[in-house]
Amino acid sequence: MDAGKKYHVNPNEDDHEVLPNKLKLTHKKDVEKEEAKGFIDASIELTLELNATTKFDNDYIMAIHEKSLQHLYTFAGKLRTVNISKGGFMFPAAQYLPEAMLAFQKDILNKLPDVYSSEKELIETVAIVHGELLYIHPFREGNGRTARLLANLMVYKAGFDRLKFEKLDNEEMLKKYIEAVQKVGLKQYQTMIDIISFVF
């Protein structure tokens, strides 16, 4: 969901090509390189730390984002304070994010099993968590990468290899991916389950 078009923000914030950053970078490619490096480093660190007691909750999600982007953005690990949209789709308003994340924790994250009874159960659970996090879009930048890293950590913990999200890197599958996120807003998860099955 981070690829392609930039987010559109509310009138209170200019839609700059490059967000203000700690490294004072002004070129988009330099910023993208630092963002990618941050997520790679966080992925390595979190994968090495992963164990049977790792709990995937809101604090963990915030930690993923903070570890990945704290070298670059002051908003790393914090809920966004601006309303954003992409491709004409408006994500939940910033003012409702604390409530949305609390509901996500209570209704979904707190109910994650320690052990999955089947591959099918794992795929369905990852799809719901992944889809809900993408739909909420809690961060100013890095939502897709945070959600994909969390999904990979969930399957690693269950003893499986990483999800092959690169299989979505074409126009047709990206369109289905975006459609799946939008359907999650209606609590319709099957399209996202199909997506996660495809990349499993």
CATH architecture: Orthogonal Bundle
Distance between the termini: 18 Å
The Cα radius of gyration reads: 16 Å
The share of residues in extended strands comes to under 5%
Q: Biggest β-sheet, characterized? A: 3 strands, antiparallel
Rounded mean pLDDT is 93
Total number of beta strands: 3
Superfamily (CATH H level) name: Fido-like domain
Summarize the structure in short:
This protein is 51% helix and 4% strand.
Write the layout of secondary structure elements.
Blueprint (H helix, E strand, L loop, with lengths): L7 E2 L18 H22 L8 H12 L14 E3 L2 E2 L6 H11 L11 H18 L6 H15 L13 H14 L5 H10 L1
Antiparallel strand pairs: 1-2, 2-3
Helix pairs in contact: 1-2, 1-5, 2-5, 4-5, 4-6, 4-7, 6-7
Structural descriptors:
globular; 3-stranded antiparallel sheet; Fic-like fold; disordered N terminus; 200 residues; mainly alpha
Characterise the protein shown here.
- The chain is mostly helical and 200 residues long.
- It has one domain: Fic-like fold (Orthogonal Bundle), CATH 1.10.3290.
- It has seven helices and three strands.
- It has a three-stranded antiparallel sheet, with no helix packed on it.
- Strand 2 and strand 3 form a beta hairpin.
- Helix 6 packs across helix 7 (190-199).
- The chain is globular and about 50 Å long.
- The two termini are 18 Å apart.
- The relative contact order is 0.15.
